[in-house]
Known about the structure:
Blueprint: E1 20-24, H1 28-40, E2 43-47, H2 51-60, E3 77-79, H3 82-88, E4 91-94, H4 101-106, E5 117-120, H5 133-140, E6 149-153, H6 158-162, E7 167-172, H7 176-186, E8 191-196, H8 199-221, H9 225-246, H10 251-254, H11 257-268, H12 273-282, H13 287-293, H14 300-315, H15 320-331, H16 335-343, H17 353-360
Parallel strand pairs: 1-2, 1-4, 2-3, 4-5, 5-6, 7-8
Antiparallel strand pairs: 6-7
Amino acid sequence: MAPTAADHAGGTGLSSERIKIGVLGGGAWGTALALHAARMGHDVLLWALEKEVAQHINEDHENKNFLPGFPLPESLRASNDIKQVAAHGEILLMVIPTPFVERTVSQVVDAVRKDAILVSCTKGILNDTLETPNHILKRVLPQHLHSRLAYLSGPSFAAEVAKENPTAVTVASEDDAVAQRVQAMMSSPRFRCYRTHDVTGVELGGALKNVLAIACGISDGLGFGSNGRAALITRGLDEITRLAVHSGASPLTLAGLAGVGDIVLTCTGDLSRNRSVGVRLGKGEKLADITAAMKGAVAEGVLTSRSAHHLALKQGIECPVIEGIYKVIHEGADPVEMVTKNMSRPLKAEVDQRVAQAAHH
């Protein structure tokens, strides 16, 4: 039922309606979103793969493994029964690393409520098939749920959401009513949701910015300064935009929260795991040692660098920043030599003609 004027609290434009929300994924981001929803007053049930995570949430009211230091309300409950959580939510937030989306969602297809909205909060591209979560979910889920899919992305460190720092994100769905519903149920005075129908742009912006963050980290680790970082961010955004536009996205989406917003955050923020990996690579550490020291935390850009490189090759689009990161991470190329090579390429116009035409239209 559509909210009425009486459903909006204090004339703020925010809904006072509260519903049942399920969260699949007990990592830092899943826990932060569950905490946010519980603070709003929603009835939240979170699925965690690890037994100790669910136990800590239920008994100690803290996710000591992945989001330590943030007290969780007693109303936020956790379970290791994935079907129980899937059946719980009118809105089901799916916070699962991209390589595990198919396996995880396949387990709950029969448990999901028929009226549920499924919100992917995952950023990535599969290495083997180059599928985004949207493609995976439409392959796994029954047809009647395809119109119930939405995608949440934007500049949002888990720890800062947990601290209730002001945050703005975007919700993409092919059905505007679905996007509006998620927007209304997840927006608060500290967490503002915008909406768009451009699922492709939101997904590619969210995935590819992680690769760019590693590049900026390497630049910082090498001591290339603010000029180098600004150049990488700007030209990296150009590459992401060209790849997205070629896939059918609007260039304006990449100028928004899922593009520029997420890029600025991830490429400059000290809480960015991807940028941190890049900094350590730039200082000469080996990727295997860096990954081992992360103790289960995921830097999505490491895997996505391979997908991004192959996507650019498939589309026939020159992406020197993405190619350079791929070669540094997966082929052991020297980052300084890659910078010199990329800076010495034939000179060209700044704005790509296809992007300019898409922006015009």
